[in-house]
Amino acid sequence: MALNRGSSPTSSIFKSSKRSSSTPPTSAASYLSALSQADASLRARRSTTSPSPTAASTPALSFSSLLTSTTEVGEEDNSDGLAVYTTVHTEFGHCYNENYRHVSKHTPGAPVIQDIDQDPPYYILFSTYISYLILIVLGHMRDFLGKRFYPDSYKHIMPRDGYAALNSDFDSFYTRRLKQRMDECFMQPVTGVAGRTIQILDRVTPDYNHTQILLGTRTRALNISSYNYLGFAQAHGGCADAVEEGMKRYGVSTAGARLEGGSTDLHITAEALVAKFVGMEAAVISSMGFATNSTYIPALVSKGCLIISDELNHTSIRFGVRNSGAHVRMFKHNDMKNLEALLREVISQGQPKTHRPWKKILVIVEGMYSMEGTMVDLPGVLKLKEKYKFYLFVDEAHSIGATGPHGRGVADYFGIDPRKIDVLMGTFTKSFGASGGYIAGSKSLIERLRIRGYSGAYAESISPAVLTQIMASMASIMSVATDGPVGPSSSSLSSSTSTLQLPQDFHTLIHPGPISQSSLPTWLTHTLPPSLSSGAEGAHRLQRLSFNSHYLHLGLQKLGFITLGHASSPIVPLLVFNPAKMIMFHRMMKDRKTPIVVVVVAYPATPLISSRVRFCVSASHTKEDVDEVLRACDEVGDVLDLKHGVMANGERRWTVEEVCERAVELVRGYAEAEGGLKKTD
Amino acid sequence: MENASFPLETVETVVLFVAQSLSAVERTFYKLPGSGIIERYVRSSHQNDPGRTFAELIILILVIINLLQSRTRPDRNKKSFLELTEKDIDELVEEWAPEPLSQPLNETEAAELAAVPIVLGPTGPHPTLLNTGKTAINLASLNFTGLAGNDHIKQRALETMRKHGVGSCGPTGFYGTFDVHLNCERDIADFLGTEGAILYSQGFSTISSVIPAFCKRGDIIVADRAVTLAIQKGMEISRSTIRWYDHNDLHSLEEVLQSVEKDRRKRKGPLTRRFIITEGIFERDGSMTDLPKLIELKHKYKYRLILDESFSFGAVGRTGRGLTELYNVPASKIDMLVGSCSIGLCAGGGFCAGSHTVVEHQRINGPAYVFSASMPPLLAVSASEGINVLRNTPSLLVKLHDNIRAARIILDQVDCVSIPSHRASPIIHLYIRATPPSDLLHPSSAAVSAKPSNPSSPVPRDAPVFDIQKEERLLQEVVEEAMAQGVMITKAKRVRGLELTEARPSIRLAMTSALSKADTEKAVNVLAKILRKKLK
Ligand SMILES: Cc1ncc(COP(=O)(O)O)c(C=O)c1O
User: Fold this and answer.
1) Which one, A237, A428, A595, B337, has the greatest CB density within 10 A?
2) Are residue B244 and residue B371 in the same domain, yes or no?
3) Which residues of chain B have pLDDT under 50?
4) Is residue B112 one of the residues assigned to a domain?
5) How much is the pTM?
6) Predicted ipTM of the assembly
7) CB spacing of A494 vs B114 below 8 angstroms
């Protein structure tokens, strides 16, 4: 069967690795480095022509820092002989064309448009089911026979010496029979920075993926897979310099939990900054995004309460929900009608058996869904919230920083006051190139969470190095006011006895607006270069991300692919259906002249039939990078027969050249069309 | 498929059987009323294309399965469902008044939160406190071997940041596995002598995720009654059957193991996975497990052992390898050895070490591993460097244990507290000694009761009684007084009301080799004086 051809990865991987180890891959090299030069000359040409419409509304960028970095050679180690790549362009692509910018914003009153579910043709459905059927039937047959004839290879799933198997054969069926065949797509070790490009460590498998052997060579690939939405994954530049300073001052670890001596003044300042960023009264930071959900949700609700959770919510939310002891019900993904019906049912029925009224009801949704790219219908949820009086928890792991004209998440995108939401949660792993997570809300809620969340008493506090990255990147999006009162932030803190207080000026500041210098430690204000503290670079990143997201999403649709989600979402899933095509897609993208690494996801992470490729667009990608991805998809899509999208109102498909040429038109046109779609009811 | 060859006879019998049952089904089908309509529909959709029918059939089956499994469907079929009119519902919705999302802090809680020590600048043996504005001697931070201030580690972390940036920006499965993570995992495995190790990005979440990765519904867990919150939460997620044994009492453990076995024999149940879960040095009171005995029992009754070494890794043993080094037991005897890089190595994250099978299993099944971004590379390198330091400077541990001993000598003379912690434990818990000095509340000296505790309840038979609020308040006074006098200490913080059983209030001292013996003695003497004064 098709899947079994997966046994040939050895040969293809050998090819690509030989290429990168013996002679520098001229093609990829010239592409990835030539772009910076092309951009520089383009910028020179453009600077004389009239500014583009979007650029006019934003402060002009100071390019000096970006330009010098083109010639500056980074300090990455060059032992791999790929010295040509070591400009910062590999981390964050230079893109000077002001047309390739976009501001993502929702038009009030317009419906929230997501891609409609499109069914593939019958034969695709059929062959997908057949693949799984063959996989399941043969897999079970092999298990049945294998356990009898080759007990040695099945020992790990059979009881032995009085111990039950660690992994029952049924539980591990998909792991052994499907995932193992696709192992070349997962757990790919990498090195360098997870920026615009990434270096993968070449590997081969001599035994059908039972073992993977690292060859010691590396291949640099275009990275459209990391959650690096705003491109802050950088080892060079203003943020990295700030982190260096922060590490010199604070060290690596604070050696303890927040309530047991692991808090520093940096934590307090950072929490106030995060609160301000998201527009809430207060915030608490935890050292892991997953744990933010799993250790704080139980502090919000308990027995006698009800959690209503979107069916596609992240595992960390489920983890926390289960630990809370609250009753849980699920509603159809992003379906407001279903949510309302459920709310009516649960409120009127009360608690099971006793019919006593619920103590509280907490609705948990995500701002942006990581597998679907859908955006929550926040206006819809808030309308229900008014009527049904539930509390709302929004997990903004993927939307904070990445959506909204000011990067403040879904509330910003919809132009809604964030304080209408009770609990805002988010992570720093994605847009801010750091790690950890936060919960923001009212002051009294956050204080309660500080002592009731498990993290405060038990989990290590977040590392100062990571905190500095968070503060520097956030400040560069918020911009630092130059005329504010200048003074060491620590002095204002040490004067107050209640050390967990917010800075004085907090409530006077408008959201989203610039922050005063006193919101940052003095040393950080001094370390941040003007391009960052002016907010110019932050705005630049937001607009590039928005452009790239729309462009890739709409481009793929014009090429005839079936995509999912919201056009302004940086997560762009592309449906491939057949499980075997996923491996092929992954391999064909990786083996291209300019290698591209992609993420593929299959059952059980997705519904059985909608296996998909998931692109994560970044502000660090140039338009040419997106062109390259589109070209690659176009070619691979033809070979693998993936173009099954039905164009709206009988339009024709575009060729890839046409898409690349008309990119700006595509993005602008979409925004206008969306804005024009006022609700008619 | 490679080995899918089977005898021809079998195929023949199978085909024959299928054919017979099919015709039987057909006969019954035509007897049913309305079968004609279905037949016509099938014929028209069939259109001489067997593939089509087949596809439709499969879709039909999947639709049915999907409907049966739908998680979002309202459960109207429950017995207690009330039939209500839309108007009733509207009224009920109107009437429903939820409780507030959170209660504001009361005065005591607010005061305690405000008194949480905040360090100005870097932490270390003599940090400056924001609360007092002065430097203090640090007996609160978990910095056992002084790695938190190590300049070499800081330098290496900086270099890593300049090479890899800060965040890894991806879960481990999707381009979040950096070479430094692999190196760190290998370093841990080498250091402990196991086949492999796996890194999680937070210490607390490690064990909460390791447990549900292995223990499923129907499996049996036998656990110590005083395990830390992280373990409790992991067991809760696993939905396994839990049996409890008395805290650090291996006789009780053996009894429970026997009773579980008896139960299974009686019910003739199938062989399920069985686990013993306990800690090396207990977070709750600093007592230590008798590892050799534990391993003997585990082998005898064929259980797998999940051992949480968060507070012993990097703290006991000649080079800080933990309990296995202290007792000279090969780490490979422990099936899942969980430790913390944030506590023992002052970096971040946690790990689980064990055989290849154990490690690889978690790479697919550990929720906090699969669904979370990998640890920042600079922290992974800090952990690796921490191990290097431990390997090369055993004197750090000698110093740590000198300090522990010095502190214990002073504290042992303070009558008003009792110390449940083991003599080698780097964390020292102080309980308020109950008024009759021969107190029955001390776990190890608990009265020998005739009947053992009920294994299905986390509460022991003679549960110690203590007044949580009063003791917390007294200890908090001690902590604040000590901070005012330049000694940074902390109570062991708990999430009261959310743990399975309430831990006895205690002050938790953390010893460190970064302090000189003189400083340690000085600080502990200050504390002893305060204790005597406040706890009279
Ligand atoms: C919705 C959601 N919440 C939480 C997390 C966990 O965040 P982290 O990777 O920082 O642990 C993720 C990450 O994938 C996520 O998608």
Assistant:
1) A428
2) yes
3) 1-6, 437-447
4) yes
5) 0.84
6) 0.84
7) no
